[in-house]
Amino acid sequence: MSDQTIDRAEKPEFYLTEDHHPEGSTNLGFWLYLMSDCLIFAVLFATHGVLGRNYAAGPSPADLFDLPIVALNTSMLLLSSITYGFAMLQMERNAKAETLFWLAVTGLFGAAFIGLELYEFIHLIHEGAGPTRSAFLSSFFTLVGTHGLHVTFGIIWLITLMVQVSMHGLVEANRRRLMCLSMFWHFLDVVWIGVFSFVYLLGVVG
């Protein structure tokens, strides 16, 4: 056996001193997740389109929806997207304190959105317009509730990232996570515009 063969046998061929994370793999994976979420909401929108006129002799959207409150709720979510954009600008400047400030403001707007949505749900159920009252209300609660659950998850994710940024700063891993949450948050904003237009406005006007 030659000396070269012995050296190869003694030296490890594959040894990594740090974790291997291919550049762009996280963003690609998260885009795939968002596309799957698009399919979920597309199905829920289609279901509401089919069942949205089946009132079962019960109340219609014009009887139930308070558009000023819904418009206020919409403004909370739109403002949260703007403030998240401010947070991302501060992240690019590597300004940790300012980034955390705008993330906190974003979380407060998101919490206000969830609070108003819960108020609407409780009010509807108190009026006897719960999800089991008609096919229209079943599809409404499912669509709006699914979006609300996504926002709630986003707030939990936001708080988790604020803790990580506070502890470790704006390191590359935290920047990548903040970018993913940014895509998720703006995606929810776009979905809600569809909900506001298709479910609330068309429901009341139609």
From TrEMBL:
Q: Give the NCBIfam families listed for this entry.
A: CyoC (TIGR02842)
Job of this protein: Cytochrome bo(3) ubiquinol terminal oxidase is the component of the aerobic respiratory chain of E.coli that predominates when cells are grown at high aeration. Has proton pump activity across the membrane in addition to electron transfer, pumping 2 protons/electron.
| UniProt key word Iron-sulfur | no
| Subunit annotation | Heterooctamer of two A chains, two B chains, two C chains and two D chains.
**Which domain of life does the protein's organism represent?**
Bacteria
Q: Cellular location of this protein?
A: Cell membrane
> Per its record, what are the GO molecular function terms?
cytochrome bo3 ubiquinol oxidase activity; cytochrome-c oxidase activity
Which positions fall inside the Heme-copper oxidase subunit III family profile domain? 1-204
Cite the PANTHER family for this sequence. Answer: CYTOCHROME BO(3) UBIQUINOL OXIDASE SUBUNIT 3, CYTOCHROME C OXIDASE SUBUNIT III
Cite a GO CC annotation: plasma membrane
Its placement in the membrane is given as: Multi-pass membrane protein
Q: Belongs to which family?
A: Belongs to the cytochrome c oxidase subunit 3 family.
Q: What is this protein called?
A: Cytochrome bo(3) ubiquinol oxidase subunit 3
GO BP: any one term: aerobic electron transport chain
Xref: InterPro entries: Cyt_c/ubiquinol_Oxase_su3, Cyt_c_oxidase-like_su3, Cyt_c_oxidase_su3-like_sf, Cyt_c_oxidase_su3_a-hlx, Cyt_c_ubiqinol_oxidase_su3, Ubiquinol_oxase_su3_dom
Q: Which UniProt keywords apply?
A: Cell membrane, Electron transport, Membrane, Oxidoreductase, Plasmid, Transmembrane, Transmembrane helix, Transport
Q: Any stretches that span the bilayer, and where are they?
A: 30-52, 64-87, 99-119, 140-163, 183-205
Q: Where is this protein primarily located?
A: membrane
